[in-house]
Description:
This protein is mainly α. About 60% of the residues lie in helices and about 0% in strands. The chain is built from five helices and no strands. The chain is elongated, with a radius of gyration of 33 Å. The relative contact order is 0.04. The model has no long low-confidence stretch (mean pLDDT about 75).
Amino acid sequence: MTRLDLLAAGLGDVTREGARRAAHDELRRQPYRDAQPPLLVRVLQRVVRAIGHLLDSVPGVPGGRGGVVLLLLLLEGTVAVVAVRLGPLQRGGRRGAGLDVGDRLTAAGH
């Protein structure tokens, strides 16, 4: 488009600041706010991004971020297998066995 075409369309006076302001005003409209993901999703996205930046800043990690993620998945899998093999953690004796004395004893009986 030529400058004359832009002026005829009413777009000749658009400045960088004016375009920024118009885009900002457009994105503040209700349909755009309704289309945003829920707050929890946005928070989780920021946390994942922060962890990604943290992993990227670790020097000398073999495999880079993928290597760290693979190691974490391997560790998580190992913990899951051990937990399944051991079963639920329980105490060996029955509950309250130390307090079950049967008949009441007198002082002389002790």
